[in-house]
Amino acid sequence: MLVWLIKHGETLPVQDDVPKMRTWNLSEALVKSGHEVIWWSSTFSHQKKKILYEANKSIKINENFSLNLIDAGSYKKNLSVKRILHHVKMANKFRNWSNNFKKPDIVVCSYPLIELAEEAVRFSKKNNIPLILDVRDQWPETFMLVSPKIFKPLVYVYTLLLKRRAKFIFNNSYSLSSMSLGCLRWAENFLDNKKLNNKVFYIGFKKREIKKNKLNDSYIAKLKQKLIKKKVFVYAGTIGSFYDLEIIIRVASICKSNNLNNFSFVIAGDGDNLHYLQNKSKNLQNVTFTGWLNTHQIHQLLEFSHVGLLPYKDFGAGTFPNKPAEYFFYGLPVISTIDGEIKSLIDQYELGINVPYSDTYKFYKAVVDIGNNHTLLSKFSNNANKMHKIKFDANKIYTDFVKYIEEVQKQYVQQI
To answer: How far apart, in whole angstroms, are the C-alpha atoms of residue 232 and residue 216?
Structure first.
Protein backbone atom coordinates (compact mmCIF):
# COMPACT_ATOMS: atom_id res chain seq x y z
CA MET A 1 0.00 0.00 0.00
CA LEU A 2 0.96 3.66 -0.38
CA VAL A 3 1.57 5.37 2.96
CA TRP A 4 1.94 9.12 3.46
CA LEU A 5 3.92 10.17 6.50
CA ILE A 6 3.60 13.84 7.51
CA LYS A 7 6.20 15.21 9.88
CA HIS A 8 8.30 18.39 10.01
CA GLY A 9 11.27 18.98 12.30
CA GLU A 10 13.15 15.67 12.08
CA THR A 11 16.39 14.81 10.34
CA LEU A 12 16.02 13.79 6.69
CA PRO A 13 17.67 11.14 4.46
CA VAL A 14 19.13 13.94 2.31
CA GLN A 15 21.30 15.16 5.21
CA ASP A 16 24.75 13.75 5.99
CA ASP A 17 25.90 12.49 9.40
CA VAL A 18 22.57 12.96 11.16
CA PRO A 19 20.79 10.46 13.42
CA LYS A 20 17.69 8.68 12.17
CA MET A 21 14.61 9.78 14.08
CA ARG A 22 11.11 8.31 14.39
CA THR A 23 9.72 9.06 10.93
CA TRP A 24 12.88 8.01 9.10
CA ASN A 25 12.95 4.71 11.01
CA LEU A 26 9.25 4.15 10.35
CA SER A 27 9.75 4.90 6.65
CA GLU A 28 12.46 2.28 6.33
CA ALA A 29 10.39 -0.29 8.23
CA LEU A 30 7.41 0.31 5.92
CA VAL A 31 9.56 -0.04 2.80
CA LYS A 32 11.16 -3.19 4.20
CA SER A 33 7.63 -4.64 4.60
CA GLY A 34 6.89 -4.00 0.92
CA HIS A 35 5.04 -0.67 1.13
CA GLU A 36 5.57 2.58 -0.73
CA VAL A 37 6.23 5.71 1.34
CA ILE A 38 5.97 9.43 0.67
CA TRP A 39 7.22 11.56 3.55
CA TRP A 40 5.98 15.14 3.63
CA SER A 41 8.30 17.54 5.43
CA SER A 42 9.94 20.96 5.04
CA THR A 43 12.88 22.28 3.04
CA PHE A 44 14.06 23.83 6.32
CA SER A 45 16.23 21.92 8.82
CA HIS A 46 14.79 22.58 12.28
CA GLN A 47 17.92 21.27 14.02
CA LYS A 48 20.47 23.30 12.07
CA LYS A 49 18.20 26.27 11.28
CA LYS A 50 19.29 25.94 7.67
CA ILE A 51 17.37 25.96 4.38
CA LEU A 52 18.14 22.77 2.45
CA TYR A 53 16.33 23.74 -0.78
CA GLU A 54 15.02 27.07 -2.06
CA ALA A 55 11.77 25.71 -3.50
CA ASN A 56 9.35 22.78 -3.15
CA LYS A 57 11.30 19.62 -3.85
CA SER A 58 10.36 16.00 -4.56
CA ILE A 59 13.25 13.60 -3.98
CA LYS A 60 13.33 9.87 -4.68
CA ILE A 61 15.39 8.16 -1.96
CA ASN A 62 14.85 4.71 -3.46
CA GLU A 63 12.28 2.89 -5.59
CA ASN A 64 9.63 2.90 -2.85
CA PHE A 65 10.60 5.87 -0.70
CA SER A 66 10.25 9.56 -1.63
CA LEU A 67 10.36 12.92 0.11
CA ASN A 68 8.08 15.84 -0.63
CA LEU A 69 9.74 18.88 0.92
CA ILE A 70 7.64 22.03 1.25
CA ASP A 71 9.27 25.45 0.97
CA ALA A 72 7.82 27.50 3.84
CA GLY A 73 10.74 29.80 4.61
CA SER A 74 12.75 29.68 7.83
CA TYR A 75 12.97 30.82 11.44
CA LYS A 76 15.85 31.41 13.84
CA LYS A 77 14.19 30.87 17.21
CA ASN A 78 11.98 27.99 18.30
CA LEU A 79 9.70 30.34 20.24
CA SER A 80 8.87 32.99 17.68
CA VAL A 81 6.12 34.43 15.52
CA LYS A 82 8.21 33.55 12.48
CA ARG A 83 8.08 29.88 13.39
CA ILE A 84 4.29 30.01 13.68
CA LEU A 85 4.11 31.69 10.26
CA HIS A 86 6.38 28.96 8.87
CA HIS A 87 3.92 26.33 10.10
CA VAL A 88 0.92 28.17 8.62
CA LYS A 89 2.65 28.56 5.27
CA MET A 90 3.67 24.91 5.23
CA ALA A 91 0.09 23.80 5.92
CA ASN A 92 -1.30 26.01 3.15
CA LYS A 93 1.22 24.70 0.63
CA PHE A 94 0.50 21.11 1.66
CA ARG A 95 -3.21 21.72 1.01
CA ASN A 96 -2.47 22.78 -2.57
CA TRP A 97 0.43 20.50 -3.46
CA SER A 98 -1.10 17.30 -2.04
CA ASN A 99 -3.78 17.34 -4.76
CA ASN A 100 -1.11 16.69 -7.41
CA PHE A 101 -0.22 13.23 -6.14
CA LYS A 102 -1.74 9.77 -6.19
CA LYS A 103 -3.94 9.37 -3.14
CA PRO A 104 -2.49 7.18 -0.37
CA ASP A 105 -4.11 4.16 1.23
CA ILE A 106 -3.43 5.60 4.67
CA VAL A 107 -1.90 8.72 6.25
CA VAL A 108 0.23 8.84 9.41
CA CYS A 109 0.49 12.45 10.55
CA SER A 110 2.46 13.71 13.55
CA TYR A 111 0.92 16.10 16.04
CA PRO A 112 1.97 18.85 16.47
CA LEU A 113 2.14 20.81 14.06
CA ILE A 114 -1.46 21.84 14.62
CA GLU A 115 -1.72 23.69 11.30
CA LEU A 116 -0.31 20.81 9.23
CA ALA A 117 -2.27 18.15 11.13
CA GLU A 118 -5.48 20.10 10.55
CA GLU A 119 -4.88 20.17 6.80
CA ALA A 120 -3.96 16.47 6.81
CA VAL A 121 -7.22 15.62 8.59
CA ARG A 122 -9.25 17.67 6.09
CA PHE A 123 -7.43 15.93 3.23
CA SER A 124 -8.13 12.47 4.66
CA LYS A 125 -11.82 13.22 5.31
CA LYS A 126 -12.30 14.70 1.85
CA ASN A 127 -10.71 11.69 0.15
CA ASN A 128 -12.10 9.00 2.47
CA ILE A 129 -8.65 7.90 3.67
CA PRO A 130 -7.86 6.69 7.21
CA LEU A 131 -5.51 8.90 9.20
CA ILE A 132 -3.47 7.83 12.22
CA LEU A 133 -2.49 10.83 14.32
CA ASP A 134 0.86 10.21 16.03
CA VAL A 135 0.73 12.42 19.14
CA ARG A 136 4.21 13.61 20.11
CA ASP A 137 3.55 16.52 22.43
CA GLN A 138 0.86 18.04 24.63
CA TRP A 139 0.48 21.06 22.39
CA PRO A 140 -0.66 23.78 23.00
CA GLU A 141 -0.23 23.26 26.77
CA THR A 142 3.55 23.14 26.44
CA PHE A 143 3.48 26.42 24.51
CA MET A 144 1.96 28.07 27.56
CA LEU A 145 4.57 26.56 29.88
CA VAL A 146 7.61 27.77 27.92
CA SER A 147 6.28 31.27 27.14
CA PRO A 148 7.86 34.25 28.95
CA LYS A 149 5.75 35.42 31.91
CA ILE A 150 5.06 38.82 30.35
CA PHE A 151 3.35 37.18 27.34
CA LYS A 152 1.38 34.50 29.21
CA PRO A 153 -2.01 36.34 29.22
CA LEU A 154 -1.83 36.77 25.44
CA VAL A 155 -0.54 33.23 24.95
CA TYR A 156 -3.38 31.90 27.12
CA VAL A 157 -6.00 33.39 24.78
CA TYR A 158 -4.10 32.02 21.79
CA THR A 159 -3.95 28.52 23.30
CA LEU A 160 -7.73 28.53 23.84
CA LEU A 161 -8.14 28.94 20.08
CA LEU A 162 -5.57 26.22 19.42
CA LYS A 163 -7.36 23.81 21.76
CA ARG A 164 -10.52 24.11 19.66
CA ARG A 165 -8.50 23.17 16.60
CA ALA A 166 -6.81 20.34 18.51
CA LYS A 167 -10.22 18.95 19.46
CA PHE A 168 -11.24 18.97 15.78
CA ILE A 169 -8.01 17.20 14.79
CA PHE A 170 -8.24 14.46 17.43
CA ASN A 171 -11.93 13.77 16.81
CA ASN A 172 -11.54 13.57 13.04
CA SER A 173 -8.55 11.25 13.03
CA TYR A 174 -9.37 7.59 12.53
CA SER A 175 -7.04 6.45 15.31
CA LEU A 176 -4.36 7.80 17.63
CA SER A 177 -0.83 6.59 18.30
CA SER A 178 1.71 8.14 20.61
CA MET A 179 5.24 7.81 21.96
CA SER A 180 3.98 7.68 25.58
CA LEU A 181 0.91 6.54 27.46
CA GLY A 182 0.65 9.90 29.25
CA CYS A 183 0.59 11.76 25.95
CA LEU A 184 -2.01 9.39 24.53
CA ARG A 185 -4.28 9.76 27.56
CA TRP A 186 -3.99 13.55 27.30
CA ALA A 187 -5.07 13.44 23.64
CA GLU A 188 -7.95 11.06 24.42
CA ASN A 189 -9.38 13.66 26.83
CA PHE A 190 -10.29 15.73 23.75
CA LEU A 191 -12.35 12.94 22.21
CA ASP A 192 -16.14 13.00 22.16
CA ASN A 193 -16.15 9.23 21.61
CA LYS A 194 -13.22 7.04 22.63
CA LYS A 195 -11.39 5.32 19.77
CA LEU A 196 -10.73 1.65 20.52
CA ASN A 197 -7.59 1.07 18.45
CA ASN A 198 -5.24 3.70 19.91
CA LYS A 199 -1.73 2.49 20.68
CA VAL A 200 1.63 3.52 22.16
CA PHE A 201 4.94 3.08 20.34
CA TYR A 202 7.93 4.37 22.26
CA ILE A 203 10.60 6.36 20.46
CA GLY A 204 13.15 3.60 20.03
CA PHE A 205 16.81 3.69 19.20
CA LYS A 206 18.96 1.40 17.11
CA LYS A 207 22.68 1.21 16.43
CA ARG A 208 23.88 3.97 14.17
CA GLU A 209 25.32 3.18 10.76
CA ILE A 210 28.91 4.09 11.58
CA LYS A 211 31.53 4.55 8.88
CA LYS A 212 34.91 3.34 10.13
CA ASN A 213 36.77 6.15 8.39
CA LYS A 214 34.85 8.67 10.53
CA LEU A 215 35.47 7.02 13.88
CA ASN A 216 38.67 8.91 14.64
CA ASP A 217 37.23 12.40 14.87
CA SER A 218 40.07 14.60 16.12
CA TYR A 219 37.90 16.87 18.28
CA ILE A 220 36.18 13.99 20.09
CA ALA A 221 39.50 12.13 20.42
CA LYS A 222 41.05 15.16 22.15
CA LEU A 223 37.98 15.53 24.38
CA LYS A 224 38.16 11.85 25.34
CA GLN A 225 41.84 12.21 26.20
CA LYS A 226 41.12 15.30 28.28
CA LEU A 227 38.39 13.50 30.24
CA ILE A 228 39.95 10.05 30.36
CA LYS A 229 40.23 9.96 34.17
CA LYS A 230 36.89 11.68 34.80
CA LYS A 231 33.36 10.47 35.40
CA VAL A 232 31.56 12.03 32.43
CA PHE A 233 27.98 13.26 32.86
CA VAL A 234 26.55 14.07 29.44
CA TYR A 235 23.58 15.93 28.04
CA ALA A 236 23.20 15.50 24.28
CA GLY A 237 20.34 17.36 22.63
CA THR A 238 18.79 20.72 21.85
CA ILE A 239 19.80 23.64 24.05
CA GLY A 240 16.43 25.34 24.30
CA SER A 241 13.52 26.39 26.47
CA PHE A 242 12.19 22.89 27.16
CA TYR A 243 15.27 21.97 29.19
CA ASP A 244 16.54 23.11 32.58
CA LEU A 245 20.21 23.06 31.60
CA GLU A 246 21.07 25.71 34.15
CA ILE A 247 20.78 23.03 36.83
CA ILE A 248 23.82 21.31 35.29
CA ILE A 249 25.78 24.55 35.60
CA ARG A 250 24.71 24.97 39.24
CA VAL A 251 25.66 21.39 40.08
CA ALA A 252 29.02 21.75 38.32
CA SER A 253 29.67 24.87 40.38
CA ILE A 254 28.94 22.99 43.63
CA CYS A 255 31.26 20.17 42.51
CA LYS A 256 34.01 22.72 41.92
CA SER A 257 33.47 24.29 45.34
CA ASN A 258 33.67 20.85 46.98
CA ASN A 259 36.82 19.89 45.06
CA LEU A 260 35.09 17.03 43.25
CA ASN A 261 37.57 17.25 40.40
CA ASN A 262 36.86 13.74 39.10
CA PHE A 263 33.45 14.79 37.70
CA SER A 264 33.06 16.47 34.33
CA PHE A 265 29.91 17.70 32.57
CA VAL A 266 29.56 17.71 28.77
CA ILE A 267 26.71 19.59 27.09
CA ALA A 268 26.49 18.58 23.44
CA GLY A 269 24.20 20.41 21.03
CA ASP A 270 23.10 23.79 19.78
CA GLY A 271 20.10 26.02 20.38
CA ASP A 272 18.69 29.35 21.46
CA ASN A 273 20.20 29.24 24.98
CA LEU A 274 23.73 28.12 24.10
CA HIS A 275 25.50 31.48 24.47
CA TYR A 276 23.63 32.29 27.68
CA LEU A 277 24.72 29.01 29.28
CA GLN A 278 28.29 29.41 28.05
CA ASN A 279 28.46 32.78 29.78
CA LYS A 280 27.00 31.32 32.98
CA SER A 281 29.70 28.64 33.07
CA LYS A 282 32.74 30.57 31.78
CA ASN A 283 34.63 30.09 35.06
CA LEU A 284 33.87 26.36 35.33
CA GLN A 285 36.57 24.14 33.87
CA ASN A 286 34.47 21.05 34.61
CA VAL A 287 31.85 22.07 31.99
CA THR A 288 32.41 21.53 28.27
CA PHE A 289 30.15 22.74 25.46
CA THR A 290 30.78 20.86 22.23
CA GLY A 291 28.29 22.68 19.99
CA TRP A 292 26.41 20.69 17.35
CA LEU A 293 27.81 17.18 16.76
CA ASN A 294 27.22 14.86 13.83
CA THR A 295 26.01 11.31 14.32
CA HIS A 296 29.53 9.82 14.41
CA GLN A 297 30.71 12.34 16.99
CA ILE A 298 27.68 11.70 19.23
CA HIS A 299 28.33 7.95 18.97
CA GLN A 300 31.93 8.39 20.12
CA LEU A 301 30.97 10.82 22.90
CA LEU A 302 28.30 8.53 24.37
CA GLU A 303 30.63 5.54 24.19
CA PHE A 304 33.05 7.09 26.70
CA SER A 305 30.44 8.85 28.86
CA HIS A 306 29.17 7.35 32.13
CA VAL A 307 25.81 8.96 32.93
CA GLY A 308 23.11 10.55 30.74
CA LEU A 309 21.34 13.68 32.00
CA LEU A 310 17.63 14.38 31.48
CA PRO A 311 17.13 17.88 32.98
CA TYR A 312 13.70 18.61 31.57
CA LYS A 313 11.33 21.30 32.75
CA ASP A 314 8.04 20.29 34.37
CA PHE A 315 5.73 19.61 31.42
CA GLY A 316 3.55 17.04 33.11
CA ALA A 317 3.33 13.28 33.13
CA GLY A 318 3.05 12.91 29.34
CA THR A 319 6.63 13.99 28.64
CA PHE A 320 8.69 11.16 27.15
CA PRO A 321 11.66 12.39 25.08
CA ASN A 322 13.79 10.32 22.71
CA LYS A 323 16.97 10.63 24.79
CA PRO A 324 16.32 7.83 27.33
CA ALA A 325 16.31 5.20 24.55
CA GLU A 326 19.60 6.52 23.19
CA TYR A 327 21.26 6.69 26.61
CA PHE A 328 20.06 3.18 27.49
CA PHE A 329 21.47 1.80 24.22
CA TYR A 330 24.93 2.98 25.30
CA GLY A 331 24.44 1.58 28.79
CA LEU A 332 24.17 5.00 30.40
CA PRO A 333 22.11 5.27 33.57
CA VAL A 334 20.23 8.54 33.86
CA ILE A 335 19.62 11.38 36.27
CA SER A 336 16.14 12.62 35.38
CA THR A 337 13.74 15.38 36.39
CA ILE A 338 10.91 14.01 34.22
CA ASP A 339 7.63 12.96 35.82
CA GLY A 340 5.30 10.19 34.64
CA GLU A 341 6.15 7.04 32.69
CA ILE A 342 9.90 7.50 32.44
CA LYS A 343 10.09 8.21 36.18
CA SER A 344 8.25 4.96 36.92
CA LEU A 345 10.55 3.00 34.60
CA ILE A 346 13.68 4.45 36.20
CA ASP A 347 12.45 3.56 39.69
CA GLN A 348 11.04 0.13 38.83
CA TYR A 349 14.01 -1.13 36.80
CA GLU A 350 16.78 0.79 38.62
CA LEU A 351 17.97 2.74 35.61
CA GLY A 352 19.33 5.73 37.49
CA ILE A 353 18.04 8.37 39.88
CA ASN A 354 14.94 10.57 39.68
CA VAL A 355 15.11 14.04 41.21
CA PRO A 356 12.43 16.73 41.52
CA TYR A 357 12.41 19.42 38.85
CA SER A 358 14.73 22.34 39.70
CA ASP A 359 16.03 20.74 42.91
CA THR A 360 19.74 21.55 42.60
CA TYR A 361 20.81 19.86 45.84
CA LYS A 362 19.12 16.53 45.01
CA PHE A 363 20.53 16.66 41.49
CA TYR A 364 24.00 17.25 42.95
CA LYS A 365 23.50 14.41 45.44
CA ALA A 366 22.49 12.07 42.58
CA VAL A 367 25.68 13.00 40.70
CA VAL A 368 27.78 12.23 43.78
CA ASP A 369 25.91 9.01 44.60
CA ILE A 370 26.39 7.57 41.11
CA GLY A 371 29.79 9.10 40.42
CA ASN A 372 31.43 7.86 43.61
CA ASN A 373 29.87 4.40 43.72
CA HIS A 374 31.27 2.09 41.06
CA THR A 375 29.02 -0.81 42.10
CA LEU A 376 25.88 1.32 41.80
CA LEU A 377 27.00 2.77 38.45
CA SER A 378 27.71 -0.71 37.09
CA LYS A 379 24.31 -2.03 38.23
CA PHE A 380 22.45 0.92 36.70
CA SER A 381 24.47 0.57 33.47
CA ASN A 382 23.67 -3.14 33.08
CA ASN A 383 20.00 -2.45 33.74
CA ALA A 384 19.99 0.34 31.13
CA ASN A 385 21.34 -2.03 28.48
CA LYS A 386 18.69 -4.61 29.33
CA MET A 387 15.94 -1.97 29.27
CA HIS A 388 16.88 -0.92 25.74
CA LYS A 389 16.51 -4.49 24.52
CA ILE A 390 13.18 -4.97 26.34
CA LYS A 391 11.33 -1.73 25.52
CA PHE A 392 13.38 0.57 23.27
CA ASP A 393 14.74 -1.58 20.45
CA ALA A 394 13.83 0.46 17.38
CA ASN A 395 13.78 -2.56 15.07
CA LYS A 396 11.02 -4.21 17.11
CA ILE A 397 9.12 -0.97 17.77
CA TYR A 398 8.88 0.06 14.13
CA THR A 399 8.11 -3.47 12.94
CA ASP A 400 5.16 -3.43 15.35
CA PHE A 401 4.22 0.09 14.20
CA VAL A 402 4.06 -1.13 10.58
CA LYS A 403 1.78 -4.02 11.60
CA TYR A 404 -0.47 -1.53 13.38
CA ILE A 405 -0.68 0.69 10.28
CA GLU A 406 -1.59 -2.35 8.18
CA GLU A 407 -4.27 -3.42 10.67
CA VAL A 408 -5.80 0.08 10.86
CA GLN A 409 -5.96 0.39 7.07
CA LYS A 410 -7.53 -3.07 6.74
CA GLN A 411 -10.07 -2.29 9.47
CA TYR A 412 -11.01 0.99 7.78
CA VAL A 413 -11.55 -0.69 4.39
CA GLN A 414 -13.78 -3.33 5.98
CA GLN A 415 -15.97 -0.64 7.55
CA ILE A 416 -16.70 1.30 4.37
So the answer is: 19
